[in-house]
Amino acid sequence: MSFRIIGDSCCDYPYLEDDYKWIKRVPLTIELDGETYIDDESLRCATLVSKMAASLNAPKSACPAPGAYFEAYDCGADDIYVVTLSDKLSGSYGSAVVAANMFKEKYPEKNIFIFSSKSAASGEIAVCEKILSLAEAGIPFDEVVKQTLEFINSLTTYFILETLEVFRKNGRLNHLQSIITGALKLKLIMGGDETGNICVRGKALSMDRAVAKMAEQIAERCKGKDMSGHDLYITHCQCPDRARQARDYIMAKVPFKECKILRAGGISTIYANAGGIIVAY
């Protein structure tokens, strides 16, 4: 049985490696000050960061239309696995589901399942790689779905941002929080909860301390668990040195099998902004 793995464009890219060509990405779009950017391989994220910094407005993202997903599904594969941003953060999941229902009406013999990653960025890549390992092993479709859902429920995501400007501009950070975090220069250690919503897991007075504190929290969560068969994933937005620092801090405390460092695509960039990192395992 042939299979295809499809993700939305918040599935980030390897750093200084190939571009995960086995994932078919369906792009979201980004709007800022009257300009529309397609979040694909041609998007220059450094330019996007500069325009975000110069704007008084927050960038807005739009999920792919069901037709874009339908076109991606129509690939000839027998088994189709689709991974999207958390359904609590984007309409991408809903659009993918609508397209899947349309696709099954036309091709009832095909297997298709839509996974809400309950995460984003590096978390989505972690889910895609889990599917790949199972499907390549010849595991039947229903069992791949079952084991992937279990993996998603065990997935942990952290992120630390250099600036909270985008969250302030788009209203995710209220005015008082913005004043306090700005005045104290606090760095928030944030993550996804079990439902895929964003939560705050800690605070620090510098990025270095925030990264170290995140590593301590990950070590505490992994205490007593054998992580030697698990990979660590880190997305960075224009800060590869910080990603490597986070890798070194975390792997000094937790012996993950491997750390895969990824560069942010457009959707990750508009939220992580320059200097931000997103960690998943």
CATH C-level class of the largest domain is: Alpha Beta
Estimate the helix proportion, in percent: 40-55%
Unreliable parts? none
Structural class: alpha/beta
Number of beta-strand segments: 14
C-alpha termini separation = 29 Å
The succession of helices and strands, N to C, reads EEEEEHEHEHEHHEHHEEHEHEHE
- The number of helical elements comes to 10
Strand order of the largest sheet: 2-13-12-14-9-10-11
Major sheet: 7 strands, mixed
What is the number of independent domains? Answer: 2
- Content of β-strand: 15-25%
Which radius of gyration do the C-alpha atoms yield?
19 Å
The averaged pLDDT comes out at 91
Indicate the CATH architecture of the largest domain: 3-Layer(aba) Sandwich
- Overall 3D geometry? globular
Q: If you had to describe this structure to a student in words, what would you say it looks like?
A:
The protein is α/β, with parallel strands linked by helices. It has two domains: 3-153, Rossmann fold (3-Layer(aba) Sandwich), CATH 3.40.50; 157-280, Hypothetical Protein Tm841, Chain: A,domain 3 (2-Layer Sandwich), CATH 3.30.1180. Helices cover 41% and strands 24% of the residues. It contains ten helices and 14 strands. It has helices at 45-54, 66-73, 92-106, 122-136, 141-154, 165-169, 175-184, 207-222, 240-253, 266-272; strands at residues 3-8, 13-14, 23-26, 29-32, 35-38, 60-62, 79-84, 111-116, 157-160, 187-192, 198-204, 231-236, 258-263, 277-280. The strands form three sheets. It has a seven-stranded mixed β-sheet, with helices on both faces. It has a four-stranded parallel β-sheet with strand order 3-1-7-8, sandwiched between helices. It has a three-stranded antiparallel β-sheet with strand order 5-4-6, covered by helices on one side. Strand 4 (29-32) and strand 5 (35-38) form a beta hairpin. Helix 2 (66-73) crosses helix 3 (92-106), helix 4 packs antiparallel against helix 5 and helix 8 (207-222) packs parallel to helix 9. The longest helix is centred in the C-terminal third of the chain and has 16 residues, at 207-222. It is globular. The chain starts with a strand and ends with a strand.
